[in-house]
## 1
Amino acid sequence: MSALKKIVIVGRPNVGKSTLFNRLAGKRRALTHDLPGMTRDRLSEVVELDDGRRYELTDTGGLEYGDTPMSAFAGEIREQAERALRDADFIVFVVDGAAGVLSEDRDIAQQLRPEAAKTVLVVNKTDRKDAEESVPEFWELGLERVLAMSAEHGDGVDDLIDAIGEIVPAEAAAEEEEDEHAPVRVAIIGRPNVGKSSLLNKLTHEERAVVSPISGTTRDAIDSELVRNGRRYTIIDTAGIRRKGKTTDEAEKLAVISARRAIERCEIALVLFDAIEGATGQDATVAGYAEDAGKAAMLLVNKWDAGEHGPDDYKKFEERLRFRLKFLSYAPLLFIAAKTGRNVEKIFPKIDQIIAGYRQRSRTSDLNAILERAVTAHNPPAVRGKPRRFYYVTQLKAGPPTFALFSNVDEPLHFSYKRYLENQFRDALGLVGCPVHFVIRARKGMKRESR
């Protein structure tokens, strides 16, 4: 298979690049902007078009060329972005339609002018009704291809998808065998001192595998490889993640960044909790990073052997934990003791079960049968008085399972109905520990097939 086409998103800070990246990739990014340096590296994702063709989408940090940049890593961000642009087959230059043309936009446009033939200017934060007024101002940037859109609401994004589709060749369709035998990437995450290193040692020692350090892509996350029953695993051990307000030391901030990048690289996050201290708000924050990144998850309550526990204690602890982590209601839970090895042997079979669903691809006919049953049982709520209809559903990608819902309304699903559909698809497809994502694709004028 030929190399994937590289699509690169650039722009100054706060114009909606990450929102557009999320919209195209069909999921939320893990690495948000709430910590210094969080976006100094490029973030790439392999994205599938509706017909299975794939391309590599790259999000870059906000470019700043002035003498007083907002980010302490402005120089590194520019270097990373310029590196990405050198390799780009197609450039998406994002500006803020509400803010108008700023000097930073002109600086970036000047840099992109030699690449104008492969650049599209996206005027973001613009509704269709406002496009006629907002777009003309941006012609001064000297780029011929201009699209108006609202990445947040999805308005106009299909036009960009069509433009990307024009350069993605047919041979870029996914080869499913590639992922089937790839190592299962597992990250061990949690706040400090919950036993992450003890668990790593027990996992690798119990399998009597040769553990070799790998030069990882993040500074403080350590990768280890092992083989169990013929299957390869990459285990990523991370530094403990503290609350943002507690990370005053610069090195510790970098450790947090490293840990969150490790989450971005994994497929399954093993989220550790301390049985002695119980579930805390900080635990929920750490678990939320995995959920935000679209990773499968398993909840592990460690140090369960540190005290006396009766049968009711398991149930009470789980109830409290589930209450805090409602967003990970689908994640299986195990009570373990990493130091002694209690229940650690149950982790790998559960990982195997989870990864099967996380990488699963389903037939379109099966998906549409699930959708029809779900809608028959519970119709979607109307949007501003307009009944929502679904025409069909197809799988965009695996890891996590992401589905395109073709609808007469391009507004996002209501939270409660989205959760309902997630549960319906998860149960019907036998997905364990996996998030399920939906992307709304508007297809106005389509006639719904009779049911």
## 2
Amino acid sequence: MSDRQHHHRHLRSVEVITVTETTETPAEEPQHEAGRSTADIAALFDVAGREEEAIRQLDGCMARLHEVQHAKAALKTLSAPELRAALEFRRAALGGEPA
């Protein structure tokens, strides 16, 4: 195996903020620690303020995932005749031709 195959790749989320210089502004925005402008810091507050909404969305996604997993587990327990009948029922409900 080559050295490349031994490396694990990690994904990370980053936020990109583009800062441009203009000469038309009468007063320069103050720069704070780490070179962030007041607008950059305000943008960070906006992102941080979306945490609760992100958690609510994630909770909803997890609930749907659990529902899907339970349905798949229940389908695995069905007999062949039950599966055929259910597939025929679905096909008819979707307007398909009978098999």
## 3
Amino acid sequence: MTALHRLACAACFCLGLLALPSASAETLREYLMARGIDPEGVSGPNLDRAITSGDCLDEEGLFLTAYYLEHASGRLVGPIQVEMLDKKRRIWTHKEVEKGWDTCPGGGILNIRRTKTGFCWYGHINPSAGVTFILSPTLELLGCVLGSYRGDFADGTIVYANSLPHFAPTHPGELSLYNPNDKSDRKIYPMKPWQAVREGHIAKVRAAYDRLGQEWLREHNHHGDPDQFTSIIGDAVATNDATDSLAFIALFDNSETLDEAAPRHTKVVYIYRNMHTEGRIDYREILHDEVKSRFGDISLQELLEPKMLEVLFGDPS
């Protein structure tokens, strides 16, 4: 049993991820017809079976849905069922996605999306945790990560925000890379050595903890580590395969500094390069207001162009 399996199952057990049976449960046929999809030709065995906790991706040439069969226990029991329709050729494909255990395969399915090399979806466990399933164009399961998709590269590498313990005094956002080809998994944010913006925020949080005192920290079961301040990773990470770079926004939570005059969050832009070069990953950290002041309303994607990277890093990459 892997650590991912143990954590996912523990979360499911604690929260009781249930799909309560209903006398009028929707069948797969009804689900498809409600979305304007003709079920004729569905190749799988589930057309008139009750389904639950699924999602779909509906594009011009493709329809894909992933779901669970309703179970008598009321729990989400795998394998996850998948139906894919090639709309132009009217060809249906049925797959069962199995993670190696029967129950608690990741929670209700959300956010099915196309990636550069296939598909992925998110299995919701709790508000702070879930599992991202990574699939090939033919719906073969390539890997799973405990976290939520943020972006990807052309070689199949997924950028994801790590899941966090839900009940904790702080929630320090983390970002990682997972390559399903070699199963490598690397945390890239936060990355030491810290740069000026992060160091400044840590100093403010440390001062706030000093004001609160050790007794308060003990009474509130607080770790008291200013490095572990709460930060939120933005929903989208921009990637550029040609420059092997990525960019994202992190929001630093100012409530932990006890500065009532400060805005709710400090918005910080991160730009990384050399993502696929061992030992050469480099990054820059810039306040969002400074980015706007220097470059105007520039997008994260535009920050990853070669000339912009030269400006940001001070030399050709």
## 4
Amino acid sequence: MMGRREVKFDLRTKLMLILVVNLFLLLSHALVFELVLVFGCLLLITIDRQTRSAFHFLIAFFIMLGIDQLGTPHMNGFAFTLVSFITVALRKFLPCFILGKWILKKTEVSEFVAVMWKLRLPQTAIIPLSVVFRYFPTIKEEWASIRAAMKMRGIHVSLEHIMVPLLMSAVNVSEELSAAALCRGLDNPGTHTSLVQVKFSHYDIAVWMITGILAVSALLLKGVGIL
């Protein structure tokens, strides 16, 4: 029995979505438009087998929406105003958070570098970007290792006991990742090859077409004053 074919989106499609979603967030503040963006992003990561993350983001969105729609009208005072502001700000940028986590979790460094070469970016941009792209997941692993070591040795959690080793690890990680990037020949001025095939699938084409239709529709609705 044949296994289920894995759905894989090109990194250029994900980067396009990040850019377009940011522009959409500036275009309109209508709740209906926001719902379309959030559920569209959740649908994409669900298709890419990120069901658990999609569920968590969905719960977080409804909690923030409930605070804004039900709690804010009954809130008074600076503290409640601050809570409302933070909740709305986080909710507005939730689609960007969804797409950002999707990119970091489902994109290998080799694929990222191959796409950067495909986009014909200069080396001065590719090397720092490849280091940064690998930096945050590595720091997350270092954070987990520090917490595990503290638990094993019975050290209580404090800002000093966490931040000092984390900062030291951050410095070492940045140096090691930079050296690894140079060892892989990213600074070589010649033609680069890659085992990763960078190409659009029919899923990517569908996403580009749907995004284009939504963009045109949003501009038309904005022009007539509906959004």
